[in-house]
């Protein structure tokens, strides 16, 4: 990518009307996100699709990095990725219980049959599990899904990246036996802590959300068992007294552990979640063959998400890093600055080499002074600047400096490549 003299700018950025801001912290956070996005050209919105985010090229780079990172994490923890349909006949939603308990928050499409855009992936994952004869030897079966989801949030509740109608979620479901529940939930909590640690997020709050007073399915005795199991896991992992209870805030099909983070403005956001579900396996008549050879054993379903909404996690990272993205996730990883026009061919050759390894490297060919171009690059958030002059070409090296350190290092193209690889692999 070439750097233009002025560069594109987002028309109207900074004049967003916040549809709902319950606190000054929420308003400050949303406005901060818009300011950073305007400078770095990350995302925009439009009233023709309220509650939906238009990720621009640089914002899409960050989103894709988050998704690929989570795919790698989930592979480490034994999940298999699936892709499921976006829209289903209401027959499915009635079977799962969502129609009776969630239909007001769903988008409907009416043709010959009435359809609903999916607000979550659990019913489709149950369908996949039910398509095959299952054995206890396969359990636990873990599915992950990054399909887009739609929830019909009230227009007054929409706010920036944190409250949207169309979003992406690192959705996952675990089908396991009763004696595997404890291990699977602990494993998921470990995945959550491991993931947040990469981003330098260590202040995590855990909440146990219990059975709703009215809207729930299943027997109270079953709910009590599920809540007791989640309490035991929280006590053994977070420690007694290090988590709180949210009475009546569980999903309609089961209790859950909610994970909350604070953003830079001290506002709490729910991100990760672990939900224990005895109801959907029963509604979908899920069975597997047990050690006794009988095909009458029913799996337990664990719902889990780590990022939660990727859009919301994106907003948290915007506040957390204030636009100074770590190299591995930065949509602008390096800028090459040729001193004058004669150095451009060498700059283009270096860009081609580094971009060939999927690094995001641009060239600033403008006739501005090196100082002006350097200042501009730092304001735009580039992690590294690479200067090329006569001496560099003669020595076969390049003058490299980081965003936060003016010290110049003379490095060959191979040394730059190795440094970039090391930064990506260590998530720095």
UniProtKB/TrEMBL annotation:
Q: Which family does it belong to?
A: Belongs to the class-II aminoacyl-tRNA synthetase family.
Q: What is the protein named?
A: threonine--tRNA ligase
Q: Which GO terms describe its cellular component?
A: mitochondrial matrix
The EC class name is ligase
Q: Which UniProt keywords apply?
A: Aminoacyl-tRNA synthetase, ATP-binding, Ligase, Mitochondrion, Nucleotide-binding, Protein biosynthesis, Transit peptide
What organism does the UniProt record list as the source?
Candida albicans
Q: Where would I find the Aminoacyl-transfer RNA synthetases class-II family profile domain in this sequence?
A: 51-326
Q: What is its EC number?
A: 6.1.1.3
> Its Gene Ontology biological processes?
mitochondrial threonyl-tRNA aminoacylation
> What PROSITE patterns has UniProt attached to this entry?
AA_TRNA_LIGASE_II (PS50862)
Source taxon at top rank: Eukaryota
